[in-house]
Write a structure and sequence with these properties.
- The protein is mostly loops.
- It is built from 1 helix and no strands.
Length: 74
Amino acid sequence: MIKEQKILDGAAVASARAAGFYDMKILAGEIEDSPNNFTRFFVIAKNDAAPTGNDKTSIVFSVKPPTGCSILGN
């Protein structure tokens, strides 16, 4: 989209593979703030795709905790 629409004041966060595929320049690499950080990209389609065996499931949610409450996880 950025390249197709010739957007000059925008950027994308993507993999080096995506930069090569779309023939775009990498402006900054290794921008994560934690070496254990992983970014997942979602593809949204009208039709479901058949499972590949390498699929991952992500659950996204948000909550508004009451004052003085903590949400903990491991």
